Amino acid sequence: MNWQQILINIAITVAAALLTALGSWVLVKVKTLVSTKIKNQKAQALLSGIVDVIASVVKATYQTYVQAIKGTEAWTQEAQKRALQQAAEAAQAQLSTEAKDYIQANFGDVGAWVQNQIEATLYDLKNKKV
Question: Cα(57)–Cα(88) distance, rounded to whole angstroms?
Fold first, then answer.
């Protein structure tokens, strides 16, 4: 292993740690936004739970799938689509029927909404909105 590979490995490790910390920060910001913008307590509780599920799924998919292949030849467009699909399926499996009904009634298609929220979470993680 040469010095360049060692530096790359260190950089990937540091980036992974920073991304995890950033994910936690984004989750706190979204929860705060939900709490201050939504007055209906039931809707607030449902959306807060949904946000938790989305954030957890994004983190879990990163830890179990993306981290192992990101930065390698295996990290292709197809692999990225597969990661998004895995996250969306996991999120929908974890959402309660009540949460899905709320999404359907207020936002439309549950699958499309979940996927959009995952993509928005990823965008926020990558672009750290303050």
Answer: 8
Residue 10, Cα to own-chain centre: how many angstroms? 24
Confirm if 50 and 99 have CB atoms less than 8 A apart.
yes
Task: Write down the residue that tokens 């910001």 correspond to.
Answer: 29
Q: Where are the alpha helices (DSSP H) in the chain?
A: 3-37, 41-61, 67-69, 77-94, 97-107, 110-127
Tell me: the pLDDT tens digits for 77-93?
898 899 999 999 999 99
Query: Tokens representing 19?
Result: 């991304």
In this structure, are residues 68 and 59 in contact, taking their beta carbons and an 8 Å threshold?
no
DSSP 70: T
Q: What pTM value is reported for the model?
A: 0.66
